[in-house]
Hints:
- By secondary structure, the chain is mainly alpha-helical.
- The chain folds into two domains: 1-101, no CATH class; 120-250, Leucine-rich Repeat Variant (Alpha Horseshoe), CATH 1.25.10.
- It is built from twelve helices and no strands.
- The radius of gyration is 20 Å and the shape is globular.
Amino acid sequence: xxxxxxxxxxxxxxxxxxxxxxxxxxxxxxxxxxxxxxxxxxxxxxxxxxxxxxxxxxxxxxxxxxxxxxxxxxxxxxxxxxxxxxxxxxxxxxxxxxxxxxxxxxxxxxxxxxxxxxxxxxxxxxxxxxxxxxxxxxxxxxxxxxxxxxxxxxxxxxxxxxxxxxxxxxxxxxxxxxxxxxxxxxxxxxxxxxxxxxxxxxxxxxxxxxxxxxxxxxxxxxxxxxxxxxxxxxxxxxxxxxxxxxxxxx
Length: 250
């Protein structure tokens, strides 16, 4: 009981310490600088990213032995629940410090964050690029583990699917399998998901242009145009013209 209470006390103190740090180093100019990039709003203290990163490193080093991965996961859950941008950044940094200890349970915990705690594209993509991509690249999880995410009620969880899949393009991959996996998402109604899909398709096209061309041609008259805007960014004007939506018959 004393050990549990001790760990809980450390976590409570760290939450308070992080919030005090953020309040002390808050700058309105930082909020103004970054807010324009967030359509969904930017709930932040306004802390310089380099300063925040240094403090994250310091806290992780100071309490790594006493809390371990399990304790830092509990701390990260608390921070993610606040909705504050910097607190989420602290949470992600802490969890990424334990990647060599990742298990399937870590995937489940991170998945829970997407059910209401991830509030913008920067936090979503940071989790994908730093944590979920590692889990997938190290075969701790499989692509099929993301299958339920494709139909999640949360748009950020759906976006996380194609964004995390980017890591698969860095090694050997079956492009047709990857394209089939995202096929059910091509009629998604959310802009942030369109952006994620387009991003993945753009990078996939650079590796496997003929297969991606075929896939884009299949969806060009039905899927959101924003997907194609992103997917065709690296194409020539002539190449992009092949994916214009056909005019409706009069």
